[in-house]
């Protein structure tokens, strides 16, 4: 895996763009992985939850599956190691959302992907950050998906989210289901709630994460556009 910073990425050619690249998101040089498959047509940026990182096996598994469906993906850390040491930062939704907005602006500065429709995929507290970012960038964010998220933590921003939003919750994630239902009622744009039967908060059960991927992939394809098949 090669490491490239902001300006260097704009020089990647089509062959290299099929690989995963380690990147640093300004202004705080937050580490991440940018994957641009051949013939990708849209991009999904991930916002992980508390206690996770851009190397989360669950998010990497989901990102790889979206890559197979034609989506480029960005996984990155929303906090520096020093910031992660202060527990309050993990639940500072405005701070996390600001980092996500920084990442979107960085992506929009890369000619190879600046025109891609853009979606956000949030988990846990990252889901709230994704919704706040979507409210702040209504003309740029084309869709949002939350996996086991806490969208309620987005607060008043929920009323301003116009991007089509899918909330996915485990059927055994008691308490979180109700929080998602309340948040769903406040969203201003197209919206849906999917419950994965028998799944708990992190979807470790057999087949649960695959179900999440199917729901998320269909949602992003519907609202960001589908890859055209070429015979």
Contiguous low-pLDDT stretches (5 residues minimum) are 1-18
Structural class: alpha/beta
Q: Count the helices. How many?
A: 8
Mean pLDDT: 89
Q: Spell the H/E element sequence.
A: EHEEEHEHHHEHEEHEH
Q: What is the CATH class?
A: Alpha Beta
Helix content: 25-40%
Task: Give a short summary of the structure.
This protein is of the alpha/beta class and 231 residues long. The protein is built from eight helices and nine strands.
Walk me through the structure.
The structure is a single chain. The chain has a nine-stranded mixed sheet with strand order 1-2-3-5-4-6-7-8-9, sandwiched between helices. It has a single domain, classed as Rossmann fold, CATH 3.40.50. The chain is globular and about 40 Å long. β2 and β3 form a beta hairpin. It is built from eight helices and nine strands. By secondary structure, the protein is α/β, with parallel strands linked by helices. 35% of the residues lie in helices and 23% in strands.
């Amino acid at each position: 895996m090669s490491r490239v910073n902001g300006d260097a990425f704009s020089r990647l050619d089509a062959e290299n763009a099929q690989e995963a690249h380690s990147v640093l998101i300004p202004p705080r040089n937050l580490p991440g992985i940018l994957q641009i498959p051949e013939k990708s047509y849209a991009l999904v940026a991930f916002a992980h939850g508390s206690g996770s990182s851009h190397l989360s096996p669950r998010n990497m598994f989901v990102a790889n599956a979206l890559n197979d469906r034609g989506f480029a993906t960005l996984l990155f850390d929303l906090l520096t190691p020093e910031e992660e040491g202060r527990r309050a930062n993990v639940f500072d939704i405005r701070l996390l959302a600001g980092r996500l907005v920084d990442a979107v602006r960085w992506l929009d500065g890369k000619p190879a992907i600046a025109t891609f429709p853009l979606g956000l995929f949030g988990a846990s507290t990252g889901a709230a950050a994704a919704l706040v970012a979507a409210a702040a960038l209504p003309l740029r964010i084309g869709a949002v998906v939350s996996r086991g998220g806490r969208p309620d933590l987005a607060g008043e921003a929920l009323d301003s989210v116009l991007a089509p939003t899918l909330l996915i919750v485990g059927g055994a994630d008691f308490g979180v289901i109700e929080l998602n239902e309340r948040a769903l009622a406040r969203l201003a744009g197209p919206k849906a709630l999917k419950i994965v039967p028998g799944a708990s908060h992190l979807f470790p059960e057999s087949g649960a994460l695959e179900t999440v991927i199917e729901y998320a992939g269909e949602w992003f394809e519907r609202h960001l556009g589908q890859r055209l098949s070429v015979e």
